[in-house]
Amino acid sequence: MKAENRYNSTAINTNKARLLIVDDEQRLLSSLKELLMANNYQVDTALGGKNACLYLLKQQYDLVLLDLRMGDFSGHRVMDFMSEHEIDAATIVVSGESSFTAVSKALRRGAYDYLRKPYIPDELLATVENALQKKLLEKAHNAMQVRLKKSEELHRYIVNSSPDIVFMLDREGRFTFVNNKIESVLGYTKRALIGAHYKTIVDEKDYERASYAFKDSIYSGNENALKHSATENGGQSSKATRTIELHLKTQGDDCTPRYFEITVFPIESSTVGLKGTPNKGLKKLIGTYGTARDITERKEAEEFINFQAYHDLLTRLPNRALFKDRLNLAITHAKRNTQHLAVMFLDLDRFKVVNDTLGHAMGDRLLQSVSIRLENCLREGDTLSRFGGDEFTLLLPDISSKEDARKIARKVINVLKEPFMLGEHEVFVGVSVGIAMYQEAGSTVEQLIQNADIAMYHVKGRGKDGYQFFSDEMNVTSSNRLKTERDMRNALENNEFRVYYQPQINAATGDIIGVEALIRWHHPEKGIIYPSDFLPLAEETKLIFEISEWVLKTACYEVKQWIEAGHHDIRLAVNFSPSQVEHPRFVNLLLSQLEAYNFPPENLEIELTENVIMNDLEHMIQKLSKLSDSGIRIAIDDFGTGYSSLNYLHKLPINTLKVDQSFVHDIQNSENEACIVDAIIAMAHGLKLNIVAEGVETTRQLNYLKSLGCHELQGFFFGKARPADETIQLINRGIQSVAS
Ligand code: C2E
Ligand code: MG
Ligand code: MG
Q1: Residue with CA closest to ligand 1 atom 42
Q2: pLDDT above 90 covers what percent of the chain?
Q3: Mutate to test the pocket of ligand 1, among 575, 612, 714, 716 (most ligand atoms within 8 A of CB)
Q4: pLDDT reading at 237 higher than 70
Q5: Distance between CA 197 and CA 181 in Å, rounded?
Q6: pLDDT tens for residues 660-671?
Q7: Cα of 222 to ligand 3 centre, how many Å?
Q8: Which residues line ligand 1 at a C-beta cut-off of 6 Å?
Q9: Does the structure show a pLDDT above 90 at 655?
Q10: Contact 343, 409 (CB under 8 A)
Q11: Which strands, in side-by-side order, build the sheet including 383-388?
C-alpha cells in the first residue's frame, strides 16, 4: 500500500513513475531499489555521483533519491549538474550527512525533502509519494499553461485577423477591449481607446441611435432598474442581440465618417451571488461584446444605385420617375387641402444649335449651367427635374394663385435670357415655358404634364421664349393629337393644304405691291382649318419642315407665274417658323430652294418674329446678312409683341417692320395705344425701314396710319387671304378707291 499523501484531493496516479537512486554503497542501493519496486515504481540505481549524471542525461526521471556524501562527486554536485542541464526531476536527499549547512545547501538547490540515514521505510515511501505527487502536479500544471497560452494566442490571432472590429465595453460603455482592426479601419490606436466611452468614435448625428442599440447593455445609472428587468424574465437572459447601422468617426487626414454595421451582445455574468451563494439565477450585466463591419462601400454603391434610379446623372436633378412621384404626392395633398399647384414644362429654345455647333461636351455643360440657374429660382419644396434632352419640368406644389406661377415663369425666362459662357463662347439660350394649373388643366400626373407640354408648344409656335398657361382651346386630347398628326401627314400626301394670299397695299397709291402667303388646310371633314389650329402641333411633331417646304414651293410656283405675266415687282411674303430659322442649314436650304424653283430672290420677303432673332443674335446676323446679300428681303412680323428691343434693329439687314395688328386695332379705342403705333412708325422712319401695318380693318385706322406716313398696309379692309386664282384677278383689277 502506498502511503496516503498530502495532495489527496487531487491525487495523481504515480505508478510507473521512474526513479533514480544514487549512492556510493551498493548495498543501500539494492535494499532501496527492492523497497521501491515492491511499491510499483520503476527504479534505476547509479553507483556514485558521476554515474548518476550519465543516467540523468540518458533517461528522464520523475524523482532522484540522492546521497550527499559520495567520494569525489558529491550529491550537491549532482544537483548542480541537474540544474545546469535543466533536468526536471524532483530530488529527495537521503544521507547520513545531517549538518545544518549540508541540509540547507541541498534544500536551497531545490531538494524536495531530506531523509536521514538510516531511513524509516514508511517515512521514505510517504516522502517519495508526496514528492512525486507534487512533481506530477507541477508537470500537469505546466502542460496546461502551455496549452492555455497557445489557445490564447490562437484566439488573439483569430480576433485580430477578423475582418471586423471586435470590441468589448464595460457597463458604463467604456472600451475594455478592441482588436487591431480599429487601427487600420478608423485610425485610432488601441491604447487611446481603452477606457474611452464608445461615443468617442460615434458620429454625433448617430448618438441617439447608438444609445438605443446599447441601451440594454449599458448601465444608465439605475441599478435597480437593471436588476428588475433581469428578474422579470425569471433570470433568463432578456437581452437580445441588436444590429444597427451607424456612422463612425475616423482619425487622420481623411476625417469623413464611415458606415458600419454593428452587432452588440450584452454580456451577463454567470449565476453568482455574494460570497459564492447562488443568487436565484439572477444574471448580472457586465458589459457589451460587439463587432463592427465596415459597409461604407456597400452603402455607397446602394446610394449610387438609388440615386441613379431617381436622378439624371448629368445635372444631378430628379429624373422623370422621381418627378412623377412627387407630383403624385403633391396632387394628393392639393386635393385634400383644396390647394393649387402648377406644373411647368420648360424647353430650351436653342439647345440644339449649341449642341450641333459646339459639340456634345459643351451641350452638357450648358445643361448643367442651366440647371444651376433654374435651381436658384426655386423655393424649398419645388421640384425641378430634367425630363430628357433639353426639357425640364418644374413642380410648384405650394402656390396661392396663377399669379404666383406667372411670376416664377417670368423669373425662369429672365435668368435664362442672360448669356452663358462656355469656354470662350458666349451663348444665348432662352426657354419656352408651358404651365398647367391643377385643377383647370388636369387633375392627374399625366394630364398635368401633357398639358404643360402642349402649352409649351404653343409658346414655341408663337416664336418661343415666353410662357403660356394651358387653356381649354389647346385642349386637343392626346387621341385627338394623334389623329391630327396623322391627318396632317395625310394632308400633305392628299394635297389638302392651300396657300392663300393676302394683299399688301401701297398706302400712297392703293396699288397691290405684294402678297403674304398664309396656309390653309382644306380638311375633307372639318372644312377650312386655320394655321393657329394646327401649326403648333406641326411644330411639335417636326412636320413643320415638310409643310413649310410645301408652302414655299407652292407660293414660289404660283407667284412666279404672276411675275412672268408682267407683275415684275410683286413681292411674296412668306412666314418662317422658329424651328426652320434655327436650323443650322436654314440659309443654304432656302437659297437652294429658290434656285430650284427658279424664283427671283428680290421678290421674296421672309417674315420672322423678333424673338427668333433675339434668341440667337450672333448667328442671326450672319444668317440674315447672307440672305440679304442674295437679295432676299427680311421683315419682322408682329413687331411690338416680343422683345421690342430696338437695339438689334440696326445690327441686322432688316427691310420691313410689320406693326402687330393689336396696335392697329387699338387705334380707334384709345389715344394711349395709338401712341405706340406713332412711336413705332416714327422709329422706323428714323431707321429708314419700310413699315407694313397689319390688321387694318377700318377707314379710321387707314386714315390714321396714312397720316403717320405708314408706307404699306395689310388687313381685311383690303381683303382677306384668298386662293391664288382670286388673288391674281384682284391684282389684275387693282384695288380701287384706297388712295382717294
Ligand atoms: P401673321 O403672319 O401675323 O399673319 C397675319 C394673320 O392675321 C393671318 O392669320 C391673317 O389672316 C390675319 N389677318 C390679316 N388681316 C387681318 C385683319 O384685318 N384682322 C384680323 N383680325 N386678322 C387679320 P392666319 O392666316 O390665321 O395666320 C396666323 C398666323 O399663322 C400668321 O400670323 C403666321 O404667323 C402663321 N402662319 C400662317 N401661314 C403660315 C405658314 O405658311 N408658315 C408659317 N410658318 N406660319 C404661318
Ligand atoms: Mg406674317
Ligand atoms: Mg403678323
Answers
A1: 575
A2: 58
A3: 575
A4: no
A5: 18
A6: 888 888 886 655
A7: 86
A8: 502, 517-519, 530-532, 535, 548, 551, 575-577, 607, 637-638, 661, 694-697, 715-716, 721
A9: yes
A10: no
A11: 383-388, 391-399, 340-348, 431-438, 466-469
Atom of ligand 1 at shortest range from CA of 664: 18
Q: Quote the ligand 3 centre to 658 CA distance (angstroms).
A: 7
| CA of 577, nearest ligand number | 1
Q: Average pLDDT of 102-112?
A: 88
pLDDT, tens digit, 9 for 90 and up, residues 437-449: 998 999 999 999 9
Q: What is the pLDDT of residue 740?
A: 36
Ligand 1 mean position, distance from CA 531 (Å): 7
**What is the spatial distance between Cα 417 and Cα 50, in angstroms, rounded to a whole number?**
113
Three-state SS for 291? strand
Nearest to 77 by CA among 112, 48, 57, 45: 48
CB 416 within 8 A of CB 429: yes
Which residues, listed in sequence order, are joined to residue 394 by a DSSP beta bridge? Answer: 344, 384
Please state, in angstroms and rounded to a whole number, the distance separating the CA atoms of residues 178 and 156: 11
Test site for ligand 1: of 462, 488, 518, most ligand atoms within 8 A of the Cβ: 518
pLDDT for the residue 324: 96
Place of cell 500544471: 141
Quick check: bond before 439 cis, omega within 30?
Answer: yes
**CA atoms in the 13 A half-sphere facing the CB of 196:** 14
CA pair distance 180, 199, nearest whole angstrom: 19
Alpha helix segments (H runs only) across 59-118 = 75-84, 100-108
Could you give the 3-state DSSP secondary structure of residue 556? helix
Domains of the chain: 8-146 (3.40.50.2300), 164-301 (3.30.450.20), 311-470 (3.30.70.270), 483-739 (3.20.20.450)
* Helix, strand or coil, per DSSP, at residue 508: coil
The residue count for the chain: 740
Measured from the Cα of 721, ligand 1's closest atom is 11
Q: Which residue has the cell 384695288?
A: 735
Q: 734 vs 647, which has greater pLDDT?
A: 734
**End-to-end CA gap in the chain:** 160
Read off the amino acid at residue 313.
L
- Residues 71-92 have pLDDT tens digits of 889 999 999 999 999 998 999 9
**Is the dihedral angle over the CA atoms 241, 246, 249, 250 positive or is it negative?**
positive
Nearest CA to ligand 1 atom 23: 695
Q: What is the 3-state composition of the chain as percent helix, strand, coil, each rounded to the nearest 5?
A: 45, 20, 30
Distance 575 CA to ligand 2 centre (A): 5
